[in-house]
Amino acid sequence: MPASCLITGAAGFVGGHVAEACVARGISVRALVRPTSDTQLLEKLGVTWHRGRLAGAAAIRGAVEGVEAIVHCAAKVGDWGSVEDYRAVNVEALRQLLDVCKDRPLQRFVHLSSLGVYAARHHYGTDETEPLPARHVDGYTQSKVEAERLALDHHRRHGIPVVVLRPGFIYGPRDRTVLPKLIDNLRKRRVRWLGGGRGAMNTIYVGNLVDAIFLALEKPNSVGQVYNLTDGEFVSKRRFIEALVNGLDLPKPPPVSAPLWLARVLAYVMERRARRKNSPKPPLLTQARLKFLGLNLDFSIEKAKRELGYQPRVTFEQGIQETIAWYRRNA
Question: Is 227 a catalytic residue?
Answer without folding.
Answer: no
